[in-house]
Amino acid sequence: MTTRPDPDDLLERVMRDEERQARGRLKIFFGFSAGVGKTFAMLEAAQALAAQGGDVVAGVVETHGRAETEAQLAGLARLPMRMVAYRDRQLPEFDLDAALERKPGVILVDELAHSNVPGSRHAKRWQDIDELLRAGIDVYTTLNVQHIESLNDVVGQITGIRVFETVPDHVFDEADDVMLVDIPPDELLARLQQGKVYLPQQAEKAGRNFFRKGNLIALREIALRRTADRVDADMRQYRADRSIAQLWQARERIVVAIGSGSGEERLIREAARLAAKLQAEWLAVHVDLPGQRQAMEARERVVAYLKLAHSLGAETASISGEELAAALLQFARSRNAGKLVIGQEEGGLRRLLRWPRGTLAQRIARSGGEIDLYTIARSRTRHQHEPASPDSAASAAEALLTRRRRTRGTLWAVASCAITTTLAFLLDGKLHPANVIMLYLVGVMLVAMRYGRAASALVSVLSVLSFDFFFVDPRFSISVSDAQYLLTLAVMLAVSLFISSLTARLRRQASVAMQREGRAANLYMLGKELSALLTLDQILEIGRRHLAAVFGARIAFFLPDSADQLRLAEPEQDSGAAHVFRNVDAGVAQWVYDNGQAAGKGTATLPSAAALYLPLTATMRTRGVLAFAIDAPSEEERQLAAAQLALPENRQMLEIFCSQIAMAIERLHYAEVAQDALVTMESERLRNSLLSAISHDLRTPLTSLVGSADVLAANTRLDDDARAMARTISEQSQKMVGLMNNLLDMARLQAGVVTLNRQWNALEELAGSALRLLAKALEGRQVETRIAPELPLLRVDAVLLERVLANLVENAIKYSPPGTPIGISAHVEDSDGAPQVKVCVTDQGRGFPPAMTQHAFEKFTRGDNESATPGVGLGLAICRAIIEAHQGRIWIAPQEAGQGATVCFTLPVETQPALPEE
Fold first, then answer.
1. For 72, which DSSP code?
2. H or E element: which one contains 58?
3. Largest Cα–Cα distance of the chain, in whole Å?
4. CA distance linking residue 178 with residue 28, whole number of Å
5. Cβ-contact 128, 122 below 8 angstroms
6. Is 912 exposed, middle or buried (0-12, 13-18, 19+ CB in 10 A)?
7. Tell me: the pLDDT tens digits for 162-176?
8. Span 197-202, mean pLDDT?
9. How high does pLDDT run on average in the chain?
10. Which of 249, 257, 278, 232 minimizes the C-alpha distance to 331?
11. Burial code of 263-276, b = ≥16 C-beta within 10 A, e = fewer?
12. Which of 47-61, 244-258, 501-515 is the most confident on average?
């Protein structure tokens, strides 16, 4: 069955199709673990497309050394990688600019969740892919289930391993195609043992941790469910695009209708039990009918019911509709739900009043034959026995305001009737009685437009009585001489009540529509203005202005510092915000920031707070906290506005505003990060060029100075003082030569022009050579070496590694008391299934200051900035550059204060070649 499509939906669909046509298509090869064959499947699809004449380019494909995967790349055009400088190393990265310039039909970009090297245009690879899609390029990529943001913590709890490279859910949901690559867990474990997933030494450890059969079964189920959710969403979108109203019950889904009366708790709990029994998704929905004006107490109950349903696992929604049965059926069909749960309606007089059109269950049964209907008896507990609502003050405030509004409406109803009667009495004899009735109907309509249904009903009755009393014979009496006037008065009363009801209803509908239109316009203007702002203060000021205009509130923003501690971002000029700033609590704001949850007034967390605190959550992280305090002229109106804010549609609108502000802050942050990275790169390049030039210019005269000083020191014709002075000149000049060598080495390492001369070397020999170079500086000290006897040979550049050991020992000499021992230790340890050699140099000095351990390996960093200890702070920086060039890691081991310093580094152990037979 099909229905006539809605014109607005058609227009939205056309615009969406136009946008899709201009945008490239994204296909994700999705799996539950590494090794299931995602990259292989992606390459197979690429080869099939290339065989059909498609323009396919491999942008970045991670084969992980698998021969069968590498073979699939044969014949495909490959995009060269871009080398990016990071921490004195050159790392390969996907060349986005080259891909945009080449603009192939399809590009392969493996590992969607990959984090780019700092200094790249985008922080994440999925952002690179988004730019490719906007340029109209189709993309094939791969993704594991643990990298989806919403599933990251769930997978971490199952496996005990938390990954930090994640992809926002919307990237997965908005993909044009998702192909599930699946194999049984036993087959994956067999592949792991055969070395087809990791190298043998890594596979053994992976099998003991992540790749346990129970873990793989659970991950497989999560991946299958996530794919099923995606397919279900595609099916619902297909039905919506083609206006198919008939249900396609491919999956059990339940909708429960929540009213505003008492006793809905039982209905919600029964629906939750039914959903659990059927293993079905369930949704709780409340329908707001435009003809019903609910009291604040009833709206508070609706909010409480929706919160209860959400806590029991339901998806909640609040919708508007002209008629309850039609609205429920439309919602159920839009969500492809085959079961509808409603509460049993009350009997008595209300059942008689509903008799002409039937009960809700009867109306649903007549129009929704394909939907199973469940009717559940509500709780018999009366509302007066229920616990008081926490927002009872808001109910009292609304009651007071309602009484005031009704009083004004009553007065205006009487005044309107009096004015109309006076006007008609003055025109008596000139107007036909029918025209007098028209005047009274105009008064009824005006009162209904201004003061609603109650006042208009009162003026309807007063108008009939006034017409009868003043204009129907016998006059000045409510008796009627002509029986025909009884029919006239009855019709007049019926028409007046109908007009008053219809006008009041249209008035409320127009008010709701204008309110929604105003909020939508404000949201549009907020997004438009935020997209053009360049400073943080401008973003916050625009956010304050729009939130105040829409919600009638005053706003305060809390932003984190470098230590993730919040600070209040006060506006430059906003004296009217003093009320908010006096009532905000920095402790509540910090809790909201740390936990990423709302707190304060109207929530279940710290509800006694004076303001509502909402996290400013963006794509990557929480960017701050918004404090929201209602601004109203009286306490009653403030309580009423706070309760209205708790309604689902208002809270959803507020969260959208917060999301827009958070995204603007994040955009500005990444723009600043990119600018800082560019400035840093240019500064480093300039400094390296300057150091290289200075070092070359000074090296030759210093070498001449050392040679001349050595000649003078060896001349026996000079007296002892002259020769001693010459030796001092030689020693200091040699130190200057060492400094120049450090500067040159640092410049060459950062420029990436150093080629490692890797040979097999014994660590004992390298340590001995370094100690011989420092023999003079080590006079009076004992060096304790503890090198494991079975230490394997290392494939390293002997000259550079000797330089590392010499720099570390020299650093220990400088910063430890004379005569204290220095230790060198080395042994083999296991790291993630791969063996490596760990080397540590220890001294008995003061140790590194705690604040220095994070940046001790940066250039020109010294333990004492102003001291007599020689040096400029390049030794450890050179050590890090050399170790990282060997794929190792260097760090400062933790030591207690005053217990010396320990610097350690690791180097990978490679398979040694077989010795030649003699």
1. T
2. strand 56-60
3. 154
4. 5
5. yes
6. exposed
7. 777 889 888 998 898
8. 63
9. 79
10. 257
11. bbbebbebbbebbe
12. 47-61
